[in-house]
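Tokens as discussed.
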């Protein structure tokens, strides 16, 4: 190690240090003398230049012992730590390389996300606008396919960004109150179209005791549910996909909510289960070709549930379907929904008729807490018997909710005898129909609810429970209701004066069309500098500011706007970042610069409308008029 023989060391121990500099030797002696006085164990690493000219690293460990004559005997060993040191240096270099690669990957993803989202905003926005124009059936179908494909591409982009943020640790959850029932219903709604196209039944069973208003990240929970229910639909050829939700008793203001997603699909073998929650993993190499997808959904789901403090388990068997169970502790804000509490249906007798137990249970779960008296029928014969018995006892049902009484039929195909038992006018027949059902002229007087059924829809019908002979042109009314819901965004007249700072011509046109549809006047600035110039000369209600623009970017512009407001004592103008930068750090940076809110491209008309309605009361013109 030192290039000297044992004999030389015995004769003169200092030959061990012959290759050290004189300064080091002097320092070494001083430290050794200090350690001898305190009898402190010697443990030190040093580098030396060996006689062969190579640098070596040594690790010396020695214990001092004072002898009777007052001298100190050191007993220890010196290790050649050169290899260990070299490995450590290599590991440090490798870590630096990995960190640099991660940083480069994050920068690349952030850049690509922005570059992809900007044109995607134009694609989705133009598709939305075109769908609201007069198109024939084929054009509507082609355009809807285009929009759906763009949304699928956007979902893939979001998955890749999410897994990147999770792996890098740059992922933060929101913590706000949200309606748990609505979150569940939204997830089912978004997966329903794919399910019904395959002829599958899709069910939501929210059991009694499930809290209404909870605190957490509702958006991420919805993402988890869409992933799980979407997979259940994707890998099921026949049968059903069910989302069941229930909660543990309330304890210290919290409850454990259990969410079960159950399907009758192809199932997963034991070996595939082990790797299924890993990024880019699929149950077998052929699944990606058969079903598509990135394999990121379950990996993101597991990470999100873990971040929320919950757990996820999977139980499956080939050919027998799959069950995914999520347990999530949530803070409970309110135990019951206001819609259920305010207008109960106490003592109203309701008959639920369907040949499938899971469907009957799904419909019944919508009536939890209403006080309605529920009865069930599994066939047409059972339904007729129940109606006749109710008539004999002079206790008719307030309503019959009818989905399917015979396999292969729907609620509109009922026998003449059943129609006769319902013709008295004392019982309202509510037909559950598929979401793409179109009624004929003969069915114009029917009361229908489209799947998947929302609790608010079924309660609304039951509260009013119009008799059949009073129900005229129901199909047109239903269509009017749908049309009204679709066009409600366009019918809004906000009357706001908007400054739009956006350099992309397509995005300018999309945003302008949306804003004009809301009854807003729009001024367009091509960059941040032009936006500041407009604001110095005029007052606007709200500013929509892109972040990345030439000449002056949005962050610099909003800082300048806040300086103007401060120096000239102007009221604060709401400035909303409307940007394709989707990272949490981008949001934090924008808010720190002076933005009031953050809207990620591509955004839809309803998202933009919600944002404008949120900030309209903070408009300087509105504030000036308020005493």
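Sequence:
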């Amino acid at each position: 190690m030192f290039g000297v023989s044992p004999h030389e060391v015995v004769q003169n121990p200092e030959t061990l240090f012959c290759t050290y500099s004189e300064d080091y030797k002097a320092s070494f002696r001083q430290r050794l003398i200090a350690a001898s006085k305190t009898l402190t164990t010697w443990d030190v690493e040093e580098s030396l230049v060996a006689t062969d000219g190579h640098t070596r690293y040594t690790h010396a460990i020695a214990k001092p012992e004072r002898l009777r004559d007052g001298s100190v005997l050191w007993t220890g060993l010196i290790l050649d730590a050169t290899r260990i040191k070299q490995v450590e240096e290599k590991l440090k270099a490798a870590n630096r390389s990995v960190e640099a690669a991660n940083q480069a990957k994050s920068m690349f993803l952030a850049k690509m996300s922005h570059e992809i989202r900007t044109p995607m905003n134009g694609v989705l926005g133009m598709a939305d606008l075109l769908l609201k124009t007069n198109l024939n059936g084929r054009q509507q179908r082609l355009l809807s396919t285009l929009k759906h494909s763009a949304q699928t591409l956007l979902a893939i982009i979001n998955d890749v960004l999410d897994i990147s943020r999770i792996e890098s640790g740059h992922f933060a959850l929101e913590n706000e109150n949200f309606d748990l029932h609505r979150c569940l219903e939204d997830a089912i709604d978004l997966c329903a179209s794919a399910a019904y196209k395959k002829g599958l039944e899709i069910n939501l069973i929210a059991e009694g005791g499930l809290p209404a208003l909870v605190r957490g990240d509702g958006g991420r929970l919805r993402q988890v549910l869409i992933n799980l229910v979407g997979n259940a639909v994707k890998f099921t050829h026949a049968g059903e996909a069910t989302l069941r939700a229930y909660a543990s008793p309330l304890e210290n203001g919290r409850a454990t909510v259990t969410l079960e997603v159950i399907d009758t699909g192809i199932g997963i073998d034991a070996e595939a289960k082990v790797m299924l929650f890993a990024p880019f993993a699929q149950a077998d190499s052929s699944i990606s070709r058969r079903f598509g997808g990135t394999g990121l959904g379950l990996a993101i789901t597991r990470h999100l549930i873990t971040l929320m403090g919950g757990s996820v388990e999977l139980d499956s068997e080939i050919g027998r379907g799959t069950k995914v169970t999520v347990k999530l502790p949530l803070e409970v804000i309110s135990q019951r929904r206001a819609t259920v509490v305010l207008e109960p249906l106490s003592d109203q007798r309701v008959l639920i008729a369907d040949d499938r137990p899971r469907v009957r249970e799904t419909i019944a779960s919508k009536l939890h807490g209403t006080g309605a008296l529920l009865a069930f029928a599994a066939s047409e014969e059972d339904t007729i018997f129940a109606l006749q018995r109710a008539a004999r006892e002079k206790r008719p049902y307030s309503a019959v909710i009818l989905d399917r009484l015979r396999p292969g039929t729907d609620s509109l195909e009922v026998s003449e005898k059943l129609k006769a038992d319902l013709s008295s006018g004392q019982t309202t027949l509510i037909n559950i129909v598929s979401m793409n059902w179109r009624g004929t002229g003969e069915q114009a007087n029917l009361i229908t609810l489209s799947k998947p059924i929302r609790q608010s829809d079924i309660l609304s019908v039951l509260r009013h429970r119009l008799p059949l002979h009073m129900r005229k042109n129901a199909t047109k009314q239903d269509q009017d209701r749908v049309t009204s819901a679709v066009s409600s965004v366009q019918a809004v007249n906000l009357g706001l004066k908007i400054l739009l700072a956006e350099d992309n011509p397509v995005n300018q046109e999309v945003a302008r069309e949306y804003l004009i549809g809301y009854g807003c006047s729009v001024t367009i600035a091509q960059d941040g500098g032009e936006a500041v110039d407009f604001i110095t000369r005029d007052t606007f209600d709200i500013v929509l500011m892109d972040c990345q623009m030439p000449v002056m970017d949005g962050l610099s512009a909003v800082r300048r706007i806040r300086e103007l407001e401060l120096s000239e004592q102007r009221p604060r103008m709401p400035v909303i970042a409307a940007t394709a930068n989707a990272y949490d750090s981008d949001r934090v940076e924008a808010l720190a610069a002076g933005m009031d809110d953050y809207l990620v491209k591509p955004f839809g008309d309803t998202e933009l409308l919600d944002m404008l309605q949120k900030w309209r009361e903070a408009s300087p013109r509105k504030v000036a008029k308020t005493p």
